[in-house]
């Protein structure tokens, strides 16, 4: 099937490379790279597909549009506005490209907390030789621990598998998954979260930012966790109220926290969380690694092939729920 695919501004090296890859791989695609808003406005009426961010005024003129490729798994707030959610256009995203990166980062947090590295690293800077506890205490014995993974998508499922290889009991909470992935001992619905929190030694968030998850972890939910539990968030920062987390850490409500994403990014230099006890903070780098651009491009190209052939698209988004 012949179709027109419009790459929306702003353009960069990555988007131009993706457009060129689609044009080469799908000969029936007429690929247009819009360099400006005016350029996009002039072509949107004839576009069957688009890639990038589509503002509401352009959507209103998109008479033929049937597929929109989102530029990120979790684009900035406002990407999924009400008019887009109500429109029949199918939206896809590049989820799956981080599955061998982010779970490793999560396990790094888990292992560091289990062995006390978050404490020993600070002692090293002070030249302080002091052991935590005794030979039998001061660590979390992973085969006797429970990890609660909140959000069992592809990243959460791979995290569960890795946790299980260390002997951990893994419990999952997910809003829509029904099949139980490898490594998950129990899978529950989102409504069960509060009941499960007191059981966990590690609470691991891999959830996206949606209307339902914004501010999900606040003072009340930290209060439901074990005092010896660790909180890990590599999903989206706006799921967690940072001032509530800072207070929970300083008051000993929870044992510690590992964060790669933050309610405010970059985290301001004067934010109290920088000096909160028992924390490991990384600057939104859990997904870093080689080949990401090729993987992003590969998802768009494969979906362009499928669109041309009238086949089901990969990674379709529930627009009303943003993921």
The coarse silhouette is: elongated
- What percentage of amino acids are in beta strands? 5-15%
CATH superfamily name of the largest domain? Answer: NAD(P)-binding Rossmann-like Domain
CATH class term of the largest domain: Alpha Beta
Major sheet: size, sense and barrel closure? 7 strands, parallel
Stretches where pLDDT falls below 50 for ≥5 residues? none
From the N-terminal CA to the C-terminal CA, the straight-line distance is 28 Å
Please give the radius of gyration in angstroms.
Answer: 22 Å
As for the number of domains, it is 2
Compute the average pLDDT: 96
Question: In CATH terms, what is the architecture of the largest domain?
Answer: 3-Layer(aba) Sandwich
The tally of beta strands, per DSSP, is 12
**The CATH topology of the largest domain:** Rossmann fold
Element pattern in H and E: EHEHEHEHEHHEHEEHEHEHEEH
Classification by helices and strands: alpha/beta
Number of helices: 11
Strand order of the largest sheet: 8-7-6-9-10-11-12
What features would you describe in this structure?
- The protein has 323 residues and is of the alpha/beta class.
- It has two domains: 3-97 and 290-309, Rossmann fold (3-Layer(aba) Sandwich); 102-281, NAD(P)-binding Rossmann-like Domain (Rossmann fold).
- Helix content is 32%, strand content 15%.
- The protein has eleven helices and twelve strands.
- The chain has helices at 13-25, 37-43, 56-59, 82-86, 102-115, 117-126, 154-165, 193-196, 219-224, 242-250, 292-309, and strands spanning 3-7, 29-33, 49-51, 67-69, 90-92, 146-150, 169-173, 186-188, 202-205, 230-233, 256-259, 279-281.
- A seven-stranded parallel sheet has the order 8-7-6-9-10-11-12, with helices on one face. A five-stranded parallel sheet has the order 2-1-3-4-5, covered by helices on one side.
- Helix 1 (13-25) runs parallel beside helix 11.
- The longest helix has 18 residues, at 292-309.
